[in-house]
Amino acid sequence: MTEIIWRPDTPVGPAQGTGKPIYKPEIFKTIDSSIDALNKELRELSLDIHSHPELAWKEHRTHDVLTGFMSKQGFTVKQHHILPTAWEATYTHGTGGRTIGVNSEMDALPGVGHACGHNLIAIAGVAVACAIKSVLEEWNISGNIVLLGTPAEEGGQGKVPLLEGGAYDEMDACVMCHPAPGPPHSASLSGSLALQRLSVEFHGHTAHAALAPWEAQNALDAAVSAYTNIGLLRQQLKPSYRVHGIIEGRDWAANIIPDYAKMTYYLRSGIWAEVVAAIPRVVACFEAAGLATGCKADIKKVNSVRELRQNKALGDEFANVFESKYGLIDYKHGIASASTDFGNVTYALPSIHPGFGIPTVVNGGNHTRAFAESAGGEAAHKAALNVAKALAAVGVRLLTDDGFFNEVKNTFEEDKKIREAI
């Protein structure tokens, strides 16, 4: 049977779960009502971000809009936190207590805007933080909330310098979510791919392309040769690997042999250890191209991200709440074949990053103009808030249930042993 992917014309009713018991349903009512009360403002915030897309490291307007919103919600806001366009919004109730972390991504993609739905990720993070704040106040629970505005997920891996700069140090766990094609009213607890980004510059020598081509070292030929080498290597790589990239030039002209070419390449696989093992083979493709053409190959490893390691205890609790209230959980949709810098966060502390289905057209998945349009839709907005409610419930349980907190820590340590043994 073919699985149904949520299309704009798919006849579906409202989200509906199984109704099975969840942890402290009276507290979930507070989560539900607090996010519903903010629905109009969150929708306006999402559309504002969506209509003003900003690229990695340039999210200045989005930074100001989100920090202004969080200040109005009673959070203590730190602008330009560690990075120029990152920010932190914190709230503490009572004394002591544990700390739940939340992430809001902000950046868009060149030419296609919010084609990965970061406007939805941003407002989902805001909704989670605000809902947990309402619970702490209404039920007089001691605890701390840290919401990070994280820039440059697309290509810049902004969470990595934030992690290295201590932005996650006080968190006991961290949560966020991500839209993608999937079944109606569904969420996914799939993983993602680890990634190593490579930057390669070929330096040669120019010459007149007709008068004296023998005087040159052709940097474009080096890039084309490397491109071909990698194409041949793919046959000897496991199907789980992805190797892909682009060639760029500078001051190219058809009658001048180029003395410069740049390649930006991504190497991905399901686990970081596999990426590490394949890096020398891919690097050899670039080195051989430089040797064959007489060009200098300047090869640099820039930005790496780990695969998502969904914390089992956090994931099981999220699945229980989501299935009870909204719909299906799967383990194959979401961003299973993509990569995210949140993978590095999952290596550092217990974390979850569920995906959630939104209505998409055929061939209109992430990183397309059609997906950007989908991410601005009303149904996508509602889906984001449903996931936010379930994530807020997970956060509240972490803050209030000692047994659950210990289970979260234990499953993190168990997974750490597994990945270190690979």
TrEMBL record:
InterPro entries: Amidohydrolase, Bact_exopeptidase_dim_dom, Peptidase_M20, Peptidase_M20/M20A_hydrolases, Peptidase_M20_dimer, Xaa-Arg_dipeptidase
Domain Peptidase M20 dimerisation stretches: 199-269
Signal peptide: none
Domain of life of the organism encoding this protein: Eukaryota
Pfam family, one: Peptidase_M20
Family note: Belongs to the peptidase M20A family.
Protein name: Peptidase M20 domain-containing protein 2
Organism, as annotated: Somion occarium
